[in-house]
Every structure is written in structure tokens, then in C-alpha cells.
Specification:
- The structure holds 2 protein chains of 2 kinds.
- Chain A is an alpha+beta fold.
- Chain A is built from 2 helices and 3 strands; from the N terminus they run E-E-E-H-H.
- In chain A, a hairpin with a 2-residue loop joins strand 2 and strand 3.
- Chain A is elongated and about 60 Å long.
- In chain B, the strands form 2 sheets. In chain B, strands 3, 4, 5, 6, 7, 8, 9, 10 and 11 form a 9-stranded antiparallel beta sheet that branches. Chain B has a two-stranded antiparallel sheet with strand order 1-2.
- The N and C termini of chain B lie far apart (38 Å).
- The chains are: A alpha+beta, B mainly beta.
- Chains A and B meet through helix 1 and helix 2 of A and strand 6, helix 1 and strand 7 of B.
Chain lengths: 80, 150
């Protein structure tokens, strides 16, 4: 991993169109500003990892689950 | 018609009508095509099977059936990825998890946007939301809830 030292207000350029700026250092945290193209997804790592894990676990089901859950839902769902 | 293997046996499907995830789902970025399977039982659930990985299938549902006011509005960038314009329809769908204890949760933190016009879908992560990726079904009265996509 490339490790660089930056001060508040300083930044890093990645490629041609990503700019990361250290905005503020406060109470052991770092506020970071990110300029990136709109189509580029930027997420907090732990949030992304959580969703990834959640998706993975969501694939672990079988038809017995689907049937049981369907029965539960059919009694508790709003009437349309 | 084409055939795909799944954990539940062989499935025949029409390649013209598969659901296209241009970016895959989070953690499954290389899986772009899913067959939409109706649930055999009546109810709000359906499921999708990857045509590229027999092991990957998700149970999905319309979250607004449980959380009436849950709204996720695609931004311009997301509409572009879905191949739709400002006025085209876009539905929100949630991934359903079933725990070993048969607890049902909806992933309201990372909904799937679905555009019927193009048959494309996109999973988005909501930023700054209080919605949990494991939102239990409402027990008594449905909660009041709103959300916007990041």
C-alpha cells in the first residue's frame, strides 16, 4: 500500500479525475473530501462490506424458507 | 429458450426477458443476468436466479407493501445507468433474508432500483440513512419511513 503524509488542506490526485482532500483533523478522526466522477461509487468501507456480507447471506435460502415466509407474510401483509 | 442450472434444479428461461444488472449486485459485480422466478405460493415474494452462477439466487419483495412510505428516488446518474429518462417508471425492490431461525428481514439500506422500460436493475447503497440492511418486518403498525437515494 502506498502511504503518504498530508496536512489539512492538502490532497491527493488519483488518475485524471479523482481528487481527495484532507479537510479537517478532529478528535482522532479525519474528514476527507472526495471529488470523483458522478458514475464512480464512493462508500464508507464498513458500509460497503456490510452490504456485501448481507447480500452473501441473502443467497443462503431454500424453498422451505420461501414457503414458510410466504405463509407468514400472507397473514400479515396489508390488504391490497 | 435457454436452460440454467440452479440449486433448485434446472430452469428454462427466455434470454430476452432476463433482468439485467449492468453493475451486478454488491459483492456479485460479475453477475449481470438474472431470471425472474415467480413464487409458487401467492404473496409478495419472488426470486431471481443468476444465469451465470447456479449458486446465486435472491428472494426479493416490494418493500412498500410493508413500509408504506419507503421511497427511493433514482438520481440522474442512476437513471442513466438504468437507461431511462426523467419521466420513466422506476420501482424499488428489496433483498429478503431469512435467518436460520426463520426471521425475515429486508435490506432497506441497499435497495434495488428496477426500470421496467429497460428491464435493468441497480443495487444502490443509501448514504446517511437510518434504514438497516436487516430491517425486520413491521410487527404491529407499519413504520413511517422515507428515504432518498444518495
Amino acid at each position: 500500500m502506498l502511504v503518504l503524509t498530508r496536512k489539512t488542506g492538502e490532497g491527493i490526485i488519483i488518475g485524471d479525475d479523482i481528487r481527495i482532500t484532507v479537510v479537517e483533523l478532529k478528535g482522532g478522526g479525519v474528514r476527507i473530501g472526495i471529488d470523483a466522477p458522478r458514475e464512480m461509487k464512493v462508500h464508507r468501507q464498513e458500509v460497503y462490506e456490510r452490504i456485501k456480507q448481507e447480500n452473501k447471506e441473502a443467497t443462503q435460502w431454500d424453498f422451505a424458507d420461501l414457503n414458510t415466509v410466504s405463509s407468514i407474510l400472507n397473514t400479515g401483509r396489508k390488504k391490497s | 429458450m435457454k436452460k440454467v442450472q440452479s440449486r433448485f434444479g434446472e430452469i428454462e428461461y427466455d434470454p430476452e426477458s432476463t433482468l439485467h444488472f449492468p453493475e451486478g449486485l454488491i459483492g456479485f459485480e460479475n453477475l449481470h443476468h438474472f431470471v425472474v422466478m415467480p413464487n409458487e405460493k401467492d404473496g409478495p415474494l419472488f426470486w431471481i436466479q443468476s444465469t451465470e452462477d447456479p449458486l446465486v439466487a435472491f428472494i426479493l419483495t416490494d418493500p412498500t407493501g410493508f413500509y408504506y412510505d419507503y421511497r427511493v428516488v433514482p438520481d440522474g446518474n442512476e437513471r442513466r445507468k438504468l437507461g431511462i429518462g426523467e419521466t420513466d417508471e422506476c420501482h424499488v425492490v428489496s433483498v429478503v433474508s431469512v435467518s436460520p431461525e426463520r426471521q425475515i428481514t429486508l435490506n432497506l439500506a441497499a435497495p434495488i432500483l428496477f426500470a421496467p422500460a429497460t428491464n435493468r436493475a441497480l443495487q444502490v447503497i443509501l448514504e446517511g440513512t437510518n434504514f438497516s440492511p436487516r430491517t425486520p418486518l413491521p410487527t404491529v403498525e407499519p413504520a413511517q419511513a422515507t428515504a432518498t437515494s444518495e
